[in-house]
Amino acid sequence: MDAIILQILNGLDKGSAYALIALGLTLIFGTLGVVNFAHGALFMLGAFCAVTLSRLLTLSHTVIDETKTDFLGNPLKVDMPYVNDIFGPEIGSTIIDWSVPLSILFAIPVMILIGVIMERGLIKHFYKRPHADQILVTFGLAIVLQEIVKYYFGANPIPTPAPDVFRGSFDFGAAVGMDPNVIIYPYWRLIYFAFATVIIGAVFAFLRFTTFGMVVRAGMADRETVGLLGINIDKRFTIMFGIAAAVAGVAGVMYTPINSPNYHMGMDFLVLSFVVVVVGGMGSLPGAVLAGFVLGILESLASMSAVIDLIPGINQVIIYMVAILILLTRPRGLMGRKGVMEE
């Protein structure tokens, strides 16, 4: 039972990433009708926003520290971050330590800007083109972004740790009444799940309870009618593309302590996220979130040693097997709408 609970927690962790990326994919498809294969690259760019801010905060200059000496008694030269000069050593060190959460504030405007530039500069020209053309051009864009990141940041993963206070593990078993030290789970993974829940809830609340969101949902259902009412729906859809990019970006930011950023991390999540979208139902936001968590949990349960011993390699294909089964029985996915991507 403890192993199953641990794998469910792992599944919620993976499912959070799948759900956030799939949510952004579905927002773009539902509003613009574009199959965006560059969305995984936006997740990767968000992660490197965290890397960039961390490097900016640790920019330093050399000073002489009279309190430290070498073996000859001479004062040592040490690197002093500029942020320590501005805010003082204690606050400066705290800012550097909390660089990952602070990167959210940095990543949101950057990712919105990138999303708007992508939509206005490239993707708007493919709205009326076949989905195959959209896939090819956005996949090509993803490769270009990936190679740019590889050129500037290198090919190796870049460790980006969580704040010191969250680097430990939580005794989950003791918290739910089980024996102590049976289910130990990292704090940051629990925080990532909570963060994903907040972001998903915020997106749904924005679409449901704000005038902007209501107009967007109306445009998703009947774009022409909304346009005839004198509403510039194209402008609102462009903003939604930026919001979808920001969702993917902040998902990447918070994932950096779990998986060190590397230039191909977007591709690692992209295919699985599209499977999540298809299983949930093309154009269905609740379906994307539900499928993300369900498939994340199933993938984690299939990674248990007892399951792998019984069916070797099942953890590598379980998501695709479930996708095939669901699409055979429910061709539109779990919560797909009639008419979406149907001729």
UniProtKB/TrEMBL annotation:
GO terms for biological process: amino acid transport. CDD domains: TM_PBP1_LivH_like (cd06582). Its main location: membrane. It is a multi-pass membrane protein. InterPro entries: ABC_transp_permease (IPR001851), BCAA_transport_permease (IPR052157). The chain crosses the membrane at residues 16-35, 42-64, 102-123, 190-216, 237-258, 270-298, 310-328. One of its GO terms (molecular function) is transmembrane transporter activity. It comes from the Bacteria. Belongs to the binding-protein-dependent transport system permease family. LivHM subfamily. This is ABC transporter permease.
